[in-house]
Design brief:
The chain has 293 residues and is of the alpha+beta class. It folds into two domains: 111 residues, 3-Layer(aba) Sandwich (Rossmann fold), CATH 3.40.50; 136 residues, Tumour Suppressor Smad4, CATH 2.60.200. 19% of the residues lie in helices and 37% in strands. It has seven helices and 17 strands. It starts with 11 loop residues before the first strand and ends in a 7-residue tail after the last helix.
Amino acid sequence: MSAPPLRLPPKKMGLVVKTSSPQAIALGQQVLSRVKEKGVEVVVDAQSAPFLHAEPGPSRAALGREVDAVLVLGGDGTFLSVTRGCPATTPVAGVNLGTLGFLTEHPAERVWQLVDDLLAGNVQCEKRDRLLCRVEGDDSPQEFLVLNDVVIAKATLARILTIDVEVEGEFLSRYRADGLILASPTGSTAYNLSAGGPIVHPELSALIITPICSHTLSNRPLVVPLNFQVAVRVHPGDEDVYLTLDGQYGLPLTDRHVVRVLPEGDPLLVVRPPNASFFAILHDKLKWGDWGS
C-alpha cells in the first residue's frame, strides 16, 4: 500500500505512555530526555504528562493533529486511544509493554533504535484502513473514526439481542446473539478473533461482520468489500444496549438509532518493524507452531 507524504524527520514528536505501567512511565521519562537532547520538540498528551513530569499537551485523540509523529509506549489499548483523531500524515509507532500487542509491534528492547530511526525519518510505514461509524437517530448524527472495530452488545446482563443488518440497502440477516462485531482487517485479530471471526490480511480492503455467540448456528461471520455500507438496528425491547468503538468509547443505543459503518478515506499510518511480515507476527503472537514443523 502506498502511503501519503510524511512530515519526517519530525520537528515535533508526540509521546504517550500507558499510565498504569511503571515500566512504560520509566521508559517514557528516558525517551523524553533522549528526544529533547536531539533538539526535537516533544508533546506529551494530557493524560501522560503528570506521570512524565512534563507540560500537558492535547488529549490523546487530538495529539496526532499537532505533531509530526507519535510514539506510544504501552499496549494495543493505549495505541488505539491515539488513533481516533490521527491524520494520515502522522505515523504512529507502538512499543509493546502490554500483553499480546498486535498494534504495538516493536519490542521494548528495540526502543532506542526505533527512536533514532524515527528521528532520522528512516522508518517503514504501512497504511491501515479505518472505518467511519455514523450513529443516526438523535437530533444530529454523530460520527466516529474507528481503527479496529464497532461492537454492539449488552452493557450488563447477558441477554440475547435481536439485531437487523443491511448491506448496501439490502436486508442481510436478523441476528439473535449476544452482540455483533463490525471489524476492519486490522481489527480482525482483536475481539473478532475471540468471537470466532476470520483473520484478514491488513492489506485487504474488507469489512468483517461477526455475530457474538449467535443463537442460530447457521449465522456465520461474513466478509464484504470495505466500500459496502452496512446499517445496523436493534429491536424494540432490547434494553441497556451499548455501542463500543475500538474498546475506547461507548454510547447507549435504542431502537430509534441506526448505526452505519462506511469506509473512511483517511487511513492510519503504522510504523512497522524492519523486515517484519504479517505472517511472522501471527506466528509470534498466536504461537502457530515452530518454523519447519
